[in-house]
Amino acid sequence: MAFFDLVDFDDHEQVVFCSDKETGLKAIIAVHSTKLGAAVGGCRMWDYASDEEALVDVLRLSRGMTYKNAMAGLSMGGGKSVIIGDAKSIKSEALFKAFGRALNGLGGRYISAEDVNITTGDIAIANTETPYVTGTEGKSGNPAPYTALGTYLGVKAAVKHKLRRDDLEGLTVAVQGLGSVGFYLCEHLHKAGAKLVVTDINEDALARAKAEFGAEVVGLNEIYDVDCDIYSPCALGATINDGTIDRIKAKVIAGCANNQLAEPKHDQALVDRGILYAPDYVINAGGIINVSFEEDYCADKATRKVEEIYDTLIDVFTKADQEQKPTGMVADELAREIIARGGK
Ligand code: NAD
Questions:
Q1: Is residue 307 part of a domain?
Q2: Which end of the chain has fewer CB within 10 Å, C or N?
Q3: Whether residue 254 sits in one domain with residue 149
């Protein structure tokens, strides 16, 4: 594989392949940039179809963290890690200890929090081998409720900009994924009077959403055809792609998933279809903002900073209109400007 020629290789500072035969650990840690500080980003556990797929995922996710942290005004660089394997079968204390030792080897250039399939308990085990973890219980804890709060405020900002409304009463939101973030998001949306149409592979989560929020449940592939005002991708990435984009009826796309656009061209394709897209790494920064308060944790301060996501998104949308550019491109340009001048 011509690693340095990969489309998703973006001059990452360091990419480390970690393996520990005894525990079965196979992980990749990608440090995209430390220009604004130590690279911070979550660890994801996923049963990738191939090692190449895992590599592409960690390269894209770590670049996204650099931009996310810059746009959120944090003094942190961007990095991410992936552990390869099925979370249902490979998790063990020994494996997370081995992961902790791998993190320790980077000497603090990368600090790991939670992402998909990684809990605060897993991070606590890694923490027995290294100080280079964050989002720990007793300090900032689980970032998901803050990611959900930021995403909810991002939905409101997008609705304000596109639909000229301050409230969500009676609007239909199609939520894809009722996991750690998606479920909390549904709680906010339900309280705000939105009608929810949901999908997930997890039947229990669907049953809870139906019982607690009166949500309508649709099939995994049907979510793209839902007659809705807002499509909220909250599962995995690349769900806005050549196969789905013409099916989406929403006027707003605003969800917490990372890497929502399958390819950069889909940024403009959404503009062409009159859909306002809230750039993923801007709207989903609530969790990492909360994590940035890890030392001397204060929930009020973290919440106030998460609330800034609303204004940041309004700025992105306004600039996109003024410059006749897609919102994702505008966010990328702003993030690069912030990094170039050494912080917000
Ligand atoms: P999670 O694993 O808790 O939830 C993901 C949910 O998606 C699960 O309920 C899963 O069953 C469901 N799912 C999987 N495949 C699906 C499919 N094909 N269709 C519908 N549902 C499907 O993860 P999470 O922490 O809630 O994160 C969700 C997304 O948000 C991820 O893309 C993650 O990277 C991103 N994100 C999370 C955080 C955070 O604080 N946890 C922060 C920023 C971004």
A1: no
A2: N
A3: yes
